[in-house]
Structure formats: structure tokens, C-alpha cells
Amino acid sequence: MIHVITGPPCGGKSTYVKENAQPGDLRVDYDLIAQALGAENSHSADGLVKQAAFDAREGAIRTALSDAGAESWIIHTTPSAEHRRMYEEAGAVFTELDPGYDECIARAEKDERPQQTFDGIEKYYSRKKGDAMEKLYKNFHLKSDEDTGTISGYFSTYDRIPDSYGDIVAPGAFEKTIEKREESGHPFPLCWNHDLDQIIGKVDSIKDTEKGPLMTASFFNTPLAQEKREIVKSGVVYQFSFAYDVKDAEVVTLEDGTKANELRELDLFEVSVVPIPANQFAEVTDIKAGRRNSKKDADAIREAIALLQGVLDNEESESGEDEAKANTAVEEPEQSNPRKDALLATIKSFDEEGNS
Hints:
single chain, Rossmann fold, 3 domains
């Protein structure tokens, strides 16, 4: 018999296997493998040790699957689709241990687990609620500091205008979930397009105001986070959404007779920077960008802008000569060039502010 034990970090998987496996049974436990390969403890594997532990676990899993007549216990927090297919084909029995989010957090705090354990708990429960997650898209005010960068603004508003899902958010809908997170001491994650494998920062604070929840978040100082920060700074991606579970809602009739689903209590999971908003009317109203990382970068950009300006000037000169030579009976109105206008606006902005 092959037993696959799933569940969140601090869910009690190792304890369950220890209590149920018999001497001689194959036990596949990543934490113990990592510790045997050199990790200081079962939760601190990194670098080469971490990779070796994953490879060793994969080998042990395939050994277990190759002999379905043996008794094997495989601890696997969230099996991938490929692993699940392999387990099912081998006739494995799945056991999910789920003590609940609050209990897992309490256990992690009691055991003084590292931050990656708390991140794993967040990821597990966010994925588990994936089908129940809904997304709202709102605009935000953006600003970046001179180090890793921050963003701030209202990630939801308490106006009475339904979004593209037909929802409106009632004042105070976030009150309990904000209070709960503040008490736990664990911030909401800032993700890229709701991808929990791309957590690019954390929500530092949320103040519930009459207008809506006012958020300040910061980017991590990692290559991935700083890459996304540069995209946000460029203005190409400038909106965000949040994933949540509905705790209380009711259909109401607005003053104009429109029916809307009023969200009265929400359990917030994460806030994400997204490229395509559901609220097509959301616009950035304020952008402040930090300086480049070095003077060398700024000088290179100024040189490139000078070359671009020269190309534009040359284009206008040639265009003027062509028009003088043309012999047309009807004078055509001058056609604007949006790309050219945008480029000129960027050059002007850079020259005036000295910022990227």
C-alpha cells in the first residue's frame, strides 16, 4: 500500500506518519532528508542541500511507486498534477491533514519556524481556496522610493458603482480580516498577477478609511521583485486586484434601480499587481518614480534620448521636404502619430524631472 499524506506546513504530516508507519516501511519525508543531507534543521535547507534533498525525495518516491506491494508513506504537501497522476496510477491512498489556517500559524509561531514556513502556509490555503477566490480590480496611486520601492493607494473603494462582476463593497468589509492579520503579525503577500509562486513584496499597512482601505506595500529586494517593480514604474502595468473569500453578502437595489451584490465581509488572501483589470475605468492619478540605480544608467538613457530626438527631428525634416514636392489637388489634414507623441512626452518628462 502506498500512502500519500498531504496538508499544509505544520499540519502534522510527519507526526501522523511516525504514529502509523511500521518498522521496515518506506518513509519519504523531505524535511528529514534535508536534515540528513546537511541542513542545520529540518526547515532550513537552502542552496545545494535543498536541491539535493528534492532530488533524493524524487528518487525515493519513484522507488516507492516501483513496488506497490511494499508499504510506503510519502509526505507531499501539494502534489503537482504529474505527481498526482503517478500516485493514482499506482493505486495510492491519499490522506489530507488540515487542522486549519489559524492552528497551523499558531504551531509555526510556537515552534519558532522561519518565514518560509509561514509563506508555505499562506500558499497552501490560498491555493486550496482557489475555486472560491474572486477578484476585484481597482486603481492605485504609485510611487517608488530610491531603494527597493513602494506602492500605495486604495485597493478597493466603498463607492456605490458596481464593478464588472456586479459587486460593490460595503464600508467595513475588510475590518475583521485586517484586524486578524495585524494580530498575527504576518503581512498580506503582494503577488504578480495572482501567481503565488511570484510573491514580489508584502503589504506593510492597511488603513480602513471612509473612502476604502488605503494600502502601502513594498517590493522585496530580489531580482524577480525588482524586475516587476521596473515594469510597474514604466507605467505599462499600473493596476491591481485582490483575491478574497466572501463571508457575508446580499443583493441590494441601488438608487438608480440597478441591482448589485453588496460584499459586506471579506476574507482577504493577497493583493496583486495585474496587467488586465476587470474595472476598465480605473486610472492611475499619480506617479512618482525613484532615481535610477546609478549615474551611469542615467547618462546612458540621456544619450539614447538625444539620439531618438535626432531621429524625430530628421523625420520631420524629410516629411516637410516630401510635402513640398507633392502636387496634390486636395490638402489633407495633418495626421497625428500617437507613438511619436508619447515618445516626445517621455523625453520632455525625463528632461524636466531628471528621473527614469
